[in-house]
Specification:
By secondary structure, the protein is an alpha+beta fold. Helix content is about 40%, strand content about 20%. The strands form three sheets. Strands 1-2-5-3-4-6-7-8-11-10 form a ten-stranded mixed β-sheet, sandwiched between helices. It has a three-stranded mixed β-sheet with strand order 9-15-14. A hairpin with a 2-residue loop joins strand 10 and strand 11. The longest helix is centred in the last third of the chain and has 26 residues.
Length: about 450
């Protein structure tokens, strides 16, 4: 698939007069997230149709750009886009909430009109399936949005915030013809994100059985504690998986980062029940961490000292002789941006792509409090070991990891996980898109290794 900077048709009623301003790199960034399965010679992403023969339009989306950077992919109908933007306002920080509300109002009133769009085109009579010869119907069946429309109706549309980080992938807010949210679809773009989506699908499938359960008597009851979204649709585009989950409840709000509104001990335990006791080295999670740390992609990074410190950290944990509580699973990204509360106080939790099984109990509590500090102070906040462990003390004690040594071990495993993710992201996409720079990761590893 190629990316072009073609001009728009003069009769396009959706306002694409400035399409030619979009840089090829911006078009490619959108295409890799919206049409990752179409990276083949018989497809191209363009900022408007070129007007050349031999190509047929498969899919078109309005885009909102600022300073040449595409920020949002929007439905062409302004009222649909406005309603989608206004949804779930209470999950957002106040500044973002106000900005979204203003944009939604301006779109609805016609004050703001997207002046650009991006289209996917297929070569007529192309070799990818032959169905392109008579039109774009066969190609539409291959895209994620095309499959969503086949399942939920031709008027189905999407709203997407374009991501630029190393972990970027499309998260599509799926809308009906009135702008009502039908659900959220997450689409892979490469092998790393494919693994994450398959992990999420497996976790949601397992947890779905517990949503309406009274539990099994082993501390794994999630009713009435925690709810997770149900899977509505799963599929793939050229071998890259996607999953769509149900919409979040109306009126759901953000969870306070501290105090009585923060997740309770029971809510932490509902997602990560203790299953057994064993030495840390005997946990499945630590064994997988060791394997990930030895990945050839990480080995090719220039920062060999970071790999050496991670290896030292893992050896410290592997040498621990005392048994520790092992949870059936840990969420992997249990942070305030992935949870919300409904009007009745029920906790909803989503984004399960980092779930791992047979992990030290208490890692989710460490991550919750580390994420608060990261939000406030960046990578330096994650290195505040004493503060994080003090914040998580009550939950860790409830899990049976209340001793000083047990807490240090938990923090070390957590930092090893963070380091592995950072190094994997850098190996996959370069350091420029990673939230933690090499020097910051070095300081974080030093904080974990300190006695």
């Amino acid at each position: 698939m190629t990316a072009g900077r073609d001009g728009a048709r003069g009769d396009d009623t959706r306002g694409a007069g400035d399409c030619g301003r979009l840089a090829a790199a911006e078009i490619a960034l959108v295409a890799e997230q919206l049409w990752p399965g179409c990276a083949r010679p018989d497809f191209r992403a363009v900022a408007g149709p070129a007007g050349t023969t031999g190509w047929v339009e498969v899919e078109r989306h309005a885009v909102l750009e600022r300073g040449g950077r595409i920020e949002l992919i929007l439905p062409a109908r302004r009222t649909v886009a406005a309603r989608g933007l206004a949804a779930y306002a209470r999950l957002r920080p106040m500044r973002l909430r106000l900005g979204r509300a203003a944009l939604a109002a301006a779109l609805a009133a016609g004050i703001v009109r997207p002046r650009a769009y991006i289209a996917l085109e297929a070569r007529a009579g192309g070799q990818d399936g032959g169905a392109h010869a008579g039109g774009a119907g066969g190609a539409r069946d291959e895209t994620v949005v095309g499959q969503l429309r086949a399942a939920f109706g031709a008027e189905t549309d999407v709203l997407v915030h374009v991501r630029r980080t190393a972990n970027r992938k499309a998260l599509l807010q799926v809308l009906d013809a009135s702008g009502r949210t039908l659900g959220f679809a997450k689409a892979a773009r490469d092998p790393a994100s494919s693994a994450g989506i398959r992990t999420e699908l497996a976790a949601l499938t397992e947890l779905a059985a517990l949503n309406d359960s009274d539990g099994d008597g082993n501390g794994d009851s999630r009713s009435p504690c925690v709810r997770t979204p149900r899977v509505l649709l799963q599929g793939s585009s050229a071998g890259l998986p996607f999953v769509m989950t149900e919409p979040l409840p109306r009126g759901i709000r953000a969870v306070g980062r501290a105090g009585s509104d923060a997740p309770s001990i029971a809510e932490f335990a509902a997602l990560a029940p203790v299953a057994r006791w064993a030495r840390p080295a005997e946990s499945g999670h630590l064994a997988r961490l060791r394997s990930r740390s030895e990945d050839p992609g990480i080995a090719r990074l220039e920062q060999s000292e970071l790999r050496q410190r991670l290896d030292e950290l893992l050896r410290c944990v592997e040498a621990e002789p005392d048994p520790a509580p092992i949870a059936r699973r840990w969420h992997g990204d249990f942070a305030f941006w992935n949870v919300g509360r409904t009007r009745d106080g029920r906790l909803w939790c989503w984004d399960f792509e980092n779930v791992d099984r047979d992990a030290l109990a208490g890692l989710d509590a460490i991550h919750w409090h580390a994420s608060r500090r990261r939000h406030a102070r960046g990578a330096a906040g994650v290195a505040e070991r004493a503060g994080i462990l003090a914040d998580a003390a009550a939950v860790l004690s409830a899990f049976g990891a209340g001793g000083a040594r047990a807490r240090v071990v938990l923090y070390r495993v957590y930092v090893a996980e963070v380091a592995a993710r950072v190094l994997e992201a850098a190996a996959n996409d370069g350091w420029a898109r990673v939230w933690c720079a090499p020097a910051e990761l070095a300081r974080l590893l030093d904080a974990a290794l300190a006695d």
